[in-house]
Design a protein that fits this description.
5-stranded parallel sheet; two-stranded antiparallel sheet; binds flavin mononucleotide; 41% helix
Amino acid sequence: MPTLLQILSSISSADGESSKLGSRFVDRWKEKNPDGEVIVRDLAADPIPHLTAERFGAFVTPEADRTPAQTEHVRASDALISELEAADIVVLGLPMYNFGIPSVLKSWFDNVARAGVTFRYTESGAVGLIGDKPLYVFASRGGLYEGTGRDFQTGHVTLFFNLLGIRDIHFEYAEGLNISPEHKENALQSATDRIDRLL
Ligand SMILES: Cc1cc2nc3c(=O)[nH]c(=O)nc-3n(C[C@H](O)[C@H](O)[C@H](O)COP(=O)(O)O)c2cc1C
Protein backbone atom coordinates (compact mmCIF):
# COMPACT_ATOMS: atom_id res chain seq x y z
CA MET A 1 0.00 0.00 0.00
CA PRO A 2 1.71 3.26 -1.07
CA THR A 3 1.93 6.04 1.48
CA LEU A 4 1.85 9.77 0.81
CA LEU A 5 3.06 12.24 3.42
CA GLN A 6 1.39 15.66 3.09
CA ILE A 7 3.15 18.40 5.02
CA LEU A 8 1.18 21.61 5.66
CA SER A 9 3.17 24.66 6.72
CA SER A 10 0.55 27.39 6.27
CA ILE A 11 -0.57 29.34 9.34
CA SER A 12 -4.08 28.59 8.02
CA SER A 13 -3.55 24.81 8.14
CA ALA A 14 -5.65 23.05 5.48
CA ASP A 15 -7.32 26.35 4.44
CA GLY A 16 -4.05 27.91 3.24
CA GLU A 17 -3.66 28.36 -0.52
CA SER A 18 -0.47 26.27 -0.49
CA SER A 19 -2.29 23.54 1.46
CA LYS A 20 -5.24 23.57 -0.93
CA LEU A 21 -2.92 23.22 -3.94
CA GLY A 22 -1.22 20.29 -2.20
CA SER A 23 -4.61 18.75 -1.44
CA ARG A 24 -5.61 19.06 -5.08
CA PHE A 25 -2.55 16.99 -5.99
CA VAL A 26 -3.32 14.51 -3.17
CA ASP A 27 -6.85 14.04 -4.55
CA ARG A 28 -5.41 13.23 -7.99
CA TRP A 29 -2.93 10.83 -6.39
CA LYS A 30 -5.73 9.08 -4.48
CA GLU A 31 -7.63 8.55 -7.73
CA LYS A 32 -4.58 6.72 -9.08
CA ASN A 33 -3.84 4.97 -5.78
CA PRO A 34 -7.21 4.03 -4.31
CA ASP A 35 -5.54 1.77 -1.75
CA GLY A 36 -2.97 4.46 -0.85
CA GLU A 37 -2.65 5.94 2.62
CA VAL A 38 -2.32 9.70 3.21
CA ILE A 39 -0.59 10.93 6.36
CA VAL A 40 -1.06 14.65 7.07
CA ARG A 41 1.56 16.49 9.10
CA ASP A 42 0.02 19.88 9.94
CA LEU A 43 2.83 22.01 11.32
CA ALA A 44 0.50 24.88 12.32
CA ALA A 45 -1.90 22.67 14.28
CA ASP A 46 0.94 20.68 15.83
CA PRO A 47 4.02 22.91 15.85
CA ILE A 48 7.43 21.41 16.40
CA PRO A 49 9.45 23.22 19.06
CA HIS A 50 12.37 25.36 17.95
CA LEU A 51 15.77 23.82 18.10
CA THR A 52 17.46 24.69 21.38
CA ALA A 53 20.84 23.75 22.84
CA GLU A 54 19.05 21.17 24.97
CA ARG A 55 17.25 19.61 22.00
CA PHE A 56 20.32 19.61 19.78
CA GLY A 57 22.31 18.24 22.74
CA ALA A 58 19.87 15.34 22.92
CA PHE A 59 20.60 14.45 19.29
CA VAL A 60 24.36 14.22 19.88
CA THR A 61 24.25 12.48 23.28
CA PRO A 62 24.61 8.67 23.30
CA GLU A 63 21.32 6.95 24.14
CA ALA A 64 22.53 5.62 27.49
CA ASP A 65 23.58 9.09 28.67
CA ARG A 66 20.39 11.00 27.79
CA THR A 67 18.22 12.58 30.47
CA PRO A 68 14.50 11.67 30.41
CA ALA A 69 13.78 15.02 28.72
CA GLN A 70 16.46 14.38 26.09
CA THR A 71 15.04 10.90 25.48
CA GLU A 72 11.69 12.51 24.76
CA HIS A 73 13.25 15.05 22.34
CA VAL A 74 14.92 12.24 20.39
CA ARG A 75 11.70 10.20 20.38
CA ALA A 76 9.80 13.15 18.88
CA SER A 77 12.48 13.70 16.23
CA ASP A 78 12.63 9.96 15.45
CA ALA A 79 8.85 9.95 14.90
CA LEU A 80 9.13 12.75 12.29
CA ILE A 81 11.99 10.95 10.56
CA SER A 82 10.12 7.61 10.51
CA GLU A 83 7.12 9.34 8.96
CA LEU A 84 9.34 10.76 6.21
CA GLU A 85 11.18 7.46 5.68
CA ALA A 86 7.95 5.48 5.43
CA ALA A 87 6.48 7.75 2.74
CA ASP A 88 6.69 6.75 -0.92
CA ILE A 89 5.90 10.31 -2.00
CA VAL A 90 5.95 13.64 -0.15
CA VAL A 91 3.76 16.71 -0.77
CA LEU A 92 4.78 20.01 0.80
CA GLY A 93 2.62 23.13 0.96
CA LEU A 94 5.01 26.09 1.03
CA PRO A 95 3.69 29.60 1.68
CA MET A 96 6.11 32.51 1.55
CA TYR A 97 6.19 34.48 4.78
CA ASN A 98 8.49 37.49 5.02
CA PHE A 99 10.57 36.32 2.05
CA GLY A 100 11.29 32.89 3.46
CA ILE A 101 9.91 29.54 4.50
CA PRO A 102 7.44 29.40 7.40
CA SER A 103 9.19 29.17 10.76
CA VAL A 104 7.23 26.01 11.58
CA LEU A 105 8.80 24.36 8.54
CA LYS A 106 12.24 25.50 9.61
CA SER A 107 11.61 23.83 12.99
CA TRP A 108 10.66 20.64 11.16
CA PHE A 109 13.91 20.88 9.14
CA ASP A 110 15.90 21.42 12.35
CA ASN A 111 14.36 18.38 13.99
CA VAL A 112 14.75 16.09 10.97
CA ALA A 113 18.37 16.93 10.01
CA ARG A 114 20.34 14.55 12.23
CA ALA A 115 23.96 13.67 11.52
CA GLY A 116 24.34 9.89 11.56
CA VAL A 117 20.57 9.40 11.23
CA THR A 118 19.28 11.27 8.18
CA PHE A 119 22.65 12.28 6.68
CA ARG A 120 26.31 11.63 7.35
CA TYR A 121 29.45 13.63 6.77
CA THR A 122 32.07 12.22 4.40
CA GLU A 123 35.33 13.61 3.02
CA SER A 124 33.48 14.63 -0.12
CA GLY A 125 30.62 16.31 1.70
CA ALA A 126 27.35 15.29 3.31
CA VAL A 127 25.53 12.17 2.08
CA GLY A 128 21.80 11.65 2.59
CA LEU A 129 20.58 8.57 4.42
CA ILE A 130 16.90 8.84 3.47
CA GLY A 131 16.15 7.08 0.19
CA ASP A 132 15.24 9.24 -2.77
CA LYS A 133 11.51 9.67 -3.38
CA PRO A 134 9.36 12.17 -5.27
CA LEU A 135 8.76 15.45 -3.45
CA TYR A 136 6.11 17.81 -4.84
CA VAL A 137 6.27 21.36 -3.48
CA PHE A 138 3.33 23.75 -3.88
CA ALA A 139 4.55 27.28 -3.30
CA SER A 140 2.10 30.18 -2.89
CA ARG A 141 3.22 33.78 -2.78
CA GLY A 142 1.67 37.22 -2.64
CA GLY A 143 4.24 38.63 -5.07
CA LEU A 144 6.31 37.40 -8.02
CA TYR A 145 9.60 35.60 -7.35
CA GLU A 146 9.85 32.46 -9.50
CA GLY A 147 13.14 32.35 -11.39
CA THR A 148 14.47 35.56 -9.81
CA GLY A 149 17.33 36.02 -7.37
CA ARG A 150 14.76 37.03 -4.75
CA ASP A 151 13.35 33.51 -4.47
CA PHE A 152 15.17 32.23 -1.40
CA GLN A 153 12.71 29.43 -0.78
CA THR A 154 13.33 27.19 -3.79
CA GLY A 155 17.07 26.88 -3.20
CA HIS A 156 16.67 26.45 0.55
CA VAL A 157 14.07 23.69 0.28
CA THR A 158 16.02 21.94 -2.50
CA LEU A 159 19.29 22.07 -0.55
CA PHE A 160 17.65 20.76 2.59
CA PHE A 161 15.99 17.74 0.97
CA ASN A 162 19.13 17.04 -1.08
CA LEU A 163 21.01 16.85 2.24
CA LEU A 164 18.71 14.01 3.28
CA GLY A 165 19.12 12.25 -0.10
CA ILE A 166 15.87 13.43 -1.70
CA ARG A 167 16.63 14.74 -5.19
CA ASP A 168 13.46 14.03 -7.17
CA ILE A 169 11.93 17.43 -6.39
CA HIS A 170 9.21 19.18 -8.37
CA PHE A 171 8.00 22.74 -7.65
CA GLU A 172 4.71 24.30 -8.70
CA TYR A 173 4.15 28.00 -8.02
CA ALA A 174 1.03 30.10 -7.54
CA GLU A 175 2.31 33.66 -7.48
CA GLY A 176 1.04 37.20 -7.30
CA LEU A 177 -1.87 36.21 -5.07
CA ASN A 178 -1.91 39.66 -3.45
CA ILE A 179 -1.64 41.65 -6.68
CA SER A 180 -5.41 41.69 -7.36
CA PRO A 181 -8.39 39.36 -6.97
CA GLU A 182 -8.30 38.67 -10.74
CA HIS A 183 -4.59 37.89 -10.68
CA LYS A 184 -5.12 35.57 -7.73
CA GLU A 185 -7.94 33.72 -9.41
CA ASN A 186 -5.95 33.27 -12.63
CA ALA A 187 -2.78 32.18 -10.81
CA LEU A 188 -4.64 29.62 -8.71
CA GLN A 189 -6.56 28.32 -11.74
CA SER A 190 -3.43 27.90 -13.82
CA ALA A 191 -1.61 26.18 -10.92
CA THR A 192 -4.60 23.86 -10.50
CA ASP A 193 -4.57 23.04 -14.22
CA ARG A 194 -0.88 22.21 -14.04
CA ILE A 195 -1.43 20.06 -10.92
CA ASP A 196 -4.13 18.08 -12.69
CA ARG A 197 -1.62 17.20 -15.40
CA LEU A 198 1.20 16.19 -13.04
CA LEU A 199 0.31 12.54 -12.52
C1 LIG B 1 2.74 36.90 7.65
C2 LIG B 1 2.76 36.89 6.15
C3 LIG B 1 3.92 37.24 5.49
C4 LIG B 1 3.94 37.25 4.11
N1 LIG B 1 5.09 37.57 3.45
C5 LIG B 1 5.12 37.55 2.10
C6 LIG B 1 6.31 37.84 1.39
O1 LIG B 1 7.35 38.11 1.96
N2 LIG B 1 6.28 37.81 0.05
C7 LIG B 1 5.15 37.47 -0.65
O2 LIG B 1 5.16 37.44 -1.86
N3 LIG B 1 3.99 37.17 0.00
C8 LIG B 1 3.97 37.20 1.35
N4 LIG B 1 2.82 36.88 2.00
C9 LIG B 1 1.65 36.42 1.21
C10 LIG B 1 1.60 34.89 1.19
O3 LIG B 1 2.77 34.34 0.64
C11 LIG B 1 0.41 34.38 0.40
O4 LIG B 1 -0.78 34.91 0.93
C12 LIG B 1 0.37 32.88 0.39
O5 LIG B 1 -0.68 32.43 -0.42
C13 LIG B 1 0.18 32.32 1.79
O6 LIG B 1 0.04 30.92 1.71
P1 LIG B 1 -1.02 30.17 2.61
O7 LIG B 1 -2.38 30.70 2.21
O8 LIG B 1 -0.84 28.73 2.24
O9 LIG B 1 -0.70 30.47 4.04
C14 LIG B 1 2.77 36.88 3.38
C15 LIG B 1 1.61 36.51 4.08
C16 LIG B 1 1.60 36.52 5.45
C17 LIG B 1 0.35 36.11 6.18
